[in-house]
């Protein structure tokens, strides 16, 4: 989470101020206000043609070594769907297609602060997994034989995806 002592625009020491009923920092010289907004993250609930779910084991904090759904931060200029497919490709070399939106969630993360998490259902249409440095291992698992996923939000997303009556098609 970003904290500032000096104004990033003009270098003047920031002052505490209550603006729009929230404690914020403001620059007394140029009036720059430090708005704190959640970081957007996408998560992929990605299945293959056999309805097996892609699960990875994370190689970096937060939740290092934990089983998880693949995902990551959006980059400036990309749509959430593009970011979700890019993260999937980077972490596992798998290509897929967005099948529908599962939901949008808010979480407080100890490393990154406030997160806006957007989860998509994805159909993967390439077979071979090749992991990158962010991942210890990755595989497709039958829904009844998933590894022990202990990240509450990821379990929530899996449960929400299962309760969708029919996949909402985006194309
Ligand atoms: Zn300033």
Automatic annotation (TrEMBL):
Cofactor names: Mg(2+)
GO molecular function: hydrolase activity
Keyword hit for Magnesium: yes
InterPro entries in UniProt: Nudix_hydrolase, NUDIX_hydrolase-like_dom_sf, NUDIX_hydrolase_dom, Nudix_N
Nudix hydrolase domain ranges (all copies): 36-166
PROSITE patterns in UniProt: NUDIX
Superkingdom of origin organism: Bacteria
Keyword GTP-binding: no
Keywords attached to this entry: Hydrolase, Magnesium
Pfam families linked to this entry: NUDIX, Zn_ribbon_Nudix
Name recorded for this polypeptide: NUDIX hydrolase
The organism of origin for this protein: Prosthecochloris vibrioformis
